[in-house]
Amino acid sequence: VLPGTRYYNNIMKTLRIVKRRAVGYWVTIVMNGIIYNITPIFRSGRHLSEDLMVIYGLEPTIETPNYEISSLLMTVAVSFVCFTVASTSGIIIILVGYVEANMLSLSVEIKEIWNDAVADKKEKKEYQHLKNQPMKIVNMYVKRRLVNIIERHKANINLLSDVEHLFRIPIGAGFLCQTISIVAELLGGLKNTYLEVPFGLVQITMDCYIGQKVMDASLIFEEAVYDCKWEKFDNSNMKLVLTILQNSQKT
After folding, report:
1. How confident is the model at residue 20, as a pLDDT?
2. Which of 103, 105, 158, 211 stands 20 to 30 A from 148 (CA)?
3. What's the superkingdom here (predicted)?
4. Sequence ranges of the domains in the chain
């Protein structure tokens, strides 16, 4: 992608939003873990982050050195879980967001392809030998751009498929664990689990949100393909548009 082009600028515009999305998610998960770890400091007496959780072999937990060891183990465990989840999910958010940015940018490119072809014909002098065939000049430009769009669209589909294949099992297992944990937290009473509930809800919400954003971007691309003034193209370019449209309906 060449810097300064419309395609590059549109990608960067969307990626800035994706960056804020990933950073916001990461900060939310990590802060949830930090707050969970420091809550015992603000309570009178000796308390763990979760008093009902007893570590095997460290009973009674409120006596020294069991209390200090239990506090250290729980703090390390919670920090490890939060940082791991935040960082792993952050990578997925960025990868999926990159696909979304490309799809939205390709939507603009294919929607403006005819206008770009007409403008290119007027600006360049390399088509002087075809000046009596203006439509041929335009369609030559359109064909080059359509082939490029097909290649980029295919690369996006492959990237999304690779991400889905790589993270399918972890995401599925995560959804199952989060569902069980949220049910258990609600059964345990929100007054006791009010810090655990946001941890699961934020993950499920973000997974659903980024998935929906990719679906919306694919739909926008599909609509842009049909709105690219394909009726003005020659037969070979119409076939290319049909190929792109069929591929877009599969994503």
Report:
1. 96
2. 211
3. Eukaryota
4. 6-248
Is 237 within 8 Å of 146 (Cβ atoms)? yes
What does each C-alpha distance from 194 to 7, 14, 190, 197 come to in angstroms?
A: 45, 34, 5, 6
Whether residue 125 is predicted with pLDDT greater than 60 in this model: the reply is: no
Polymer length in residues for the chain: 251
Q: Residue 91: what are its φ and ψ, rounded to 5°?
A: -60, -45
Mean pLDDT, the chain, rounded, equals 87
Rounded Cα–Cα distance for residues 249 and 223 (Å):
10
Q: What is the mean pLDDT of residues 45-71?
A: 80
Residue 2 sits at φ, ψ, to 5 deg, of -80, 125
Residue 93: how many CA atoms within 13 Å on its side-chain side? 26
CA distances (Å), 223 to each of 11, 139, 246, in order?
19, 21, 12
